[in-house]
Design a protein that fits this description.
The structure holds two protein chains of two kinds. By secondary structure, chain A is of the alpha/beta class. Chain A folds into three domains: 75 residues, Ubiquitin-like (UB roll) (Roll); 97 residues, Alpha-Beta Plaits (2-Layer Sandwich), CATH 3.30.70; 359 residues, 3-Layer(aba) Sandwich (Rossmann fold), CATH 3.40.50.1780. In chain A, 34% of the residues lie in helices and 13% in strands. In chain A, the strands form five sheets. Chain A has a five-stranded mixed sheet with strand order 2-1-5-3-4, with helices on both faces. A four-stranded parallel sheet of chain A has the order 11-10-13-14, with helices on both faces. In chain A, a hairpin with a 6-residue loop joins strand 7 and strand 8. The two termini of chain A are 29 Å apart. Chain B is α+β, with helices and mostly antiparallel strands. Chain B has two domains: 59 residues; 87 residues, Glutaredoxin, CATH 3.40.30.10. Helix content of chain B is 42%, strand content 10%. Chain B is built from eight helices and four strands. A four-stranded mixed sheet of chain B has the order 2-1-3-4, covered by helices on one side. The termini of chain B are far apart. The chains are: A alpha/beta, B alpha+beta. Chains A and B meet through strand 7 and helix 16 of A and helix 3 and helix 4 of B.
């Protein structure tokens, strides 16, 4: 709700509430403790007023009005419930259902669907309007799957893609009954400017957007006696997966997650955190080298695959600035199929690497040609999102809450607290600063918490003095925010040494593959991202090992296999290149 | 300051017709240039006859409007067409007045003689057929518009004569 000093009085069902003068009737009802049923409305997106589910009666108005878009005025008397309103809302949802595949039981959103829940809550118990239903093919060409038959035209995906991500890949095409949400030219997702961030999946009330399913391939591999199936889990998973099992948002559940994965049959449970620590070592060296040689700055992080896709399509001229480091996931997968396989004497092809990611773009990253072995097979065999892992656990009957805590397998499961915070916006920057500071100064860093880069604000800037040099850093989350920052960098208005970009608003804790929020919270809610980030900062604070370069397993890896950071072998295995992609986006 | 290494180009975005290009440049100087999208699409269709995928991409790049928005707007309006149209554009009004005075029979005759449906173009590229909503000339109903010319009080039996004015060859079609 917008804030202002001027307050007005509104009567909601006879209750007097004071609200800011820019508030809507929906806001006023919320303030009175009435959650008016709603569908297209999203508090973090622009106003649309398309669905009319939130109708209320206003004294003096002839017809019911949509409360989401009706401004308050002094003394308004509002009725949020009446036989007429109940019938109208029910009829609206019934009409939407009539133009919707009635396959709730076999739908991936069964149980998490807002339309399904609303139909129940509004009392839709029979179908009165059977008529023609729209027919569209499903577009499964990319990790983010589009199924327009399940679309109810609420426009949230269009808005999040344009307003929050600055991608604007989706528009409503045609009109009336033929209206359909699609990329330009009603083309396929894999031929569009989509960056696969998955925020459309997160905001979609139905299953019109879902991720490509990888669970079946994982179940098959687990059942194959010829395969050794190992798993790695991203930093952000431990901060969110508990929500699916009744834990309050922000409850870290690392130990139970590890035990659950073992129970599911994974031979080894490794930690993407190890890859994160390694990324910091490689990236810090890359940064210091650029600083010493006077090469182009800023260095921009490359962990977020949604950001990488965005860069290749929207800012190809910035590719030389991006770190050449592979992401933590791809670094770890590469090491699993080289270093680890050699060490364990495993034949190529025996190892099946599963990555649990908060992210749909990681599915895309895993398939990129840059991340394949010489024989064409990918380093990462399957990527499942947090949501998919939750479903797999339910499918297998894992009693998550009752599990004892387990530990990651060594050596690729040993990690520092700096790696844990990779899952939140600002975390990669903080981890990098901890290492860069000590590498440059040779002195121990007294205060490890870089509060300046913490928090869920869209863009954060800070100056960190290191050995007499003021290192200027910036952190952006959400691609529209990244755009703002990058335009300032391009124009020369702002100059930085180091930039961290995460595609999703709030970072990986609010990634496109994360659990649908629990009741009372919503997707894109900064408070939810804060709570989830708090879990990661708590894990970090509770560890004695908090700096990537102090990780003994990383030290051992460099000693026995890679040589040193940025060595020839490290370059071969842990670094990559990016290319401009077509079609280009409009920045 | 970082130089743009590659300009805003798209492999599949050809040049626009000069008069459209000129108009895009003109409106770029005005407030809210993006609000001229529909006007640009109008000029493009008038110039080329239809909106090709390549031209729509070019509009997106030149006006710096996301391609999805350009095609979303273009598909919203029945006026815009995405397939090449014939040299002569037939538009029969099916507004209420024209309809009650027999436009349906005129349309049926046009379809029968041309062998195409609404929105179609004859194989020789000579004619395309469209249906207009009310053109605001109800006193003249039923109204047929060919290119810019208006034919009033059209009856089905007038159709052959009108088509022949534009080079329709009755003998050729009968074969």
């Amino acid at each position: 709700m917008p804030t202002t000093k001027k307050q007005v009085t509104v009567w909601i069902d006879g209750t007097r509430v004071m609200v800011p003068e820019q508030a809507t009737l929906l806001d006023a009802a919320d303030a009175a403790g009435i959650h008016v049923p709603r569908l297209c409305h999203h508090p973090n997106l622009s106003l649309l007023g398309a669905c009319r589910v939130c109708v209320v009666e206003v004294e003096g108005q002839r017809n019911p009005v949509a409360s989401c878009s009706f401004p308050v005025a002094e003394g308004l008397k509002v009725k949020t419930s009446s036989p007429l309103l109940r019938r109208l809302r029910r009829d609206i949802v019934e009409l939407i259902l009539d133009n919707h595949p009635q396959d709730c039981q076999t739908c991936p959103r069964n149980g998490t669907c807002e339309l399904q829940r609303l139909a129940y809550e509004l009392g839709v118990r029979e179908r009165l309007f059977e008529g023609e239903r729209k027919r569209h093919a499903t577009d499964a060409s990319a990790p983010v799957i589009r199924n327009p038959e399940k679309c109810i035209l609420c426009g949230r995906c269009v808005r999040v893609c344009a307003e929050v991500q600055g991608v604007y890949n989706l528009s409503q095409h045609h009109r009336g009954f033929a209206n359909v949400v699609a990329p330009a030219h009603e083309g396929q997702m894999d031929k569009s400017v989509c960056v696969q961030c998955g925020q459309c999946i997160n905001v979609c009330p139905t299953a019109a957007f879902v991720e490509q399913d990888a669970t079946e391939s994982v179940f098959e591999a687990l059942a194959d006696p010829e395969r050794m199936v190992v798993v790695q889990t991203a930093p952000a998973i431990r901060a969110t997966i508990g929500e699916a099992f009744g834990y309050a948002p922000g409850t870290p559940v690392t130990g139970k997650l590890v035990t659950a994965l073992r129970l599911m049959g994974f031979a080894k449970v490794f930690d993407t955190n190890f890859g994160a620590d390694l990324t910091i070592l490689e990236e810090a060296h890359e940064f210091l080298k650029r600083l010493e040689t006077g090469a182009r700055l800023p260095l921009i992080t490359s962990c977020s695959p949604g950001w990488i896709n965005f860069m290749e399509r929207f800012y190809p001229e910035l590719i030389p600035l991006a770190s050449t480091c592979k992401s933590p996931m791809s670094m770890l997968s590469t090491l699993l199929k080289t270093y680890y396989a050699e060490k364990e004497g495993l034949k190529p092809g025996k190892l099946f690497v599963v990555a649990v990611m908060p992210c749909t773009a990681k599915k895309f990253e895993a398939r990129r040609d840059e991340h394949r072995m010489a024989d064409g097979r990918p380093y990462t065999d399957a990527v499942v999102t947090t949501r998919e892992l939750i479903w797999m656990m339910r499918c297998l009957g894992v009693d998550f809450r009752d599990l004892p805590d387990g530990d990651f397998d060594a050596p690729l499961g040993v990690s520092s607290g700096a790696a844990d915070i990779f899952g939140t916006t600002g975390g990669v920057m903080e981890a990098a600063l901890r290492t860069a500071y000590e590498k440059v100064t040779g002195r121990e860093l007294a205060a490890l918490d870089f509060e300046q880069v913490r928090g869920v604000e869209g863009v954060k800037e800070a100056v960190v003095p290191i050995n007499g040099l003021d290192i200027r850093v910036a952190v952006a989350n959400g691609l529209q925010n990244a755009k703002t920052l990058l335009e300032a960098v391009k124009s020369g208005a702002k100059r930085f040494h180091l930039i961290e970009i995460m595609a999703c608003p709030g970072g990986c804790v609010a990634g496109g593959g994360q659990p649908y929020p629990p009741a009372g919270m919503h997707v894109l809610d900064p408070e939810l991202a804060k709570l989830r980030a708090r879990a990661l900062y708590a894990i970090d604070a509770g560890k004695s090992l908090r700096k990537s370069h102090d990780n003994p397993a990383i030290e051992a890896l460099y000693g026995e296999y890679l040589g040193g950071p940025n060595s020839h072998r490290a370059h071969e295995l842990l670094h990559t290149q990016y290319q401009p992609k077509s079609p280009r986006g409009i920045p | 300051m970082i130089q743009e290494r590659s300009g805003l180009t798209r492999d599949d975005a050809p040049a626009l017709p000069p008069e459209v290009e000129q108009f895009v440049k003109e409106v770029a100087e005005r407030p809210h240039p993006e609000s001229y999208l529909i006007a640009v699409l109008h000029r493009l269709q008038n110039s080329v006859g239809y909106l090709s995928r390549e031209h729509l991409n070019a509009v997106s790049v030149r006006m710096k409007i996301p391609a999805a928005k350009v095609t979303g707007v273009a598909t919203f309006y029945h006026f815009f067409t995405f397939t090449p149209r014939g040299r002569h554009r037939l538009s029969i009004c099916m507004g209420t007045a024209c309809f009650v005075r027999g436009a349906g029979a005129v349309l049926a005759r046009l379809q029968e003689m041309l062998g195409i449906g609404v929105g179609g173009t004859t194989a020789d590229g000579l004619f395309s057929l469209e249906v207009a909503r009310c053109v605001g000339a109800c006193a003249l109903a039923p109204v047929l518009i060919v290119n810019e010319k208006v034919y009033a009080n059209v009856k089905p039996e007038d159709v052959p004569r009108i088509l022949e004015e534009y080079g329709f060859d009755r003998g050729a079609k009968r074969k």
